[in-house]
Design a protein that fits this description.
single chain, mainly alpha, 6 helices, globular
Amino acid sequence: MTLNDLSEIIAARKSADPDSSWTAKLLSQGPEKCAEKFGEEAIEAIIEAVKGDKVRLTSEAADVLYHLLVMLTACDVALDDVIAELAARQGTSGIAEKAARS
C-alpha cells in the first residue's frame, strides 16, 4: 500500500458512519482532534526513537503517517499538494530553504 492509496481510503471514510470506522470517527471530531491525535502519535514515535527500539519505532512511524494523512484530510489539504511542495524544495539546501522562510 502506498501513501496515495492510504490517503484515498481515508478520504473515502470521511463520509462513512463514525460508529463503523475509526477513521470516520476521528474525522467527525474535526481538525483539532485529528491534530491532537497526530501530535500524540508523533510523541510516541519520538520516545521509541530515543529508546532505540526499531521495531516499536517502525510501528509508531506507521501510526504517525496514518494520523498525518487523517489530519491533512480533516483540513482539506491534499497529499498531492504536500508532495508538490516537497518537489518544489528538491535541490534546495535545507539550510537555505529554512532561511528563506524566516
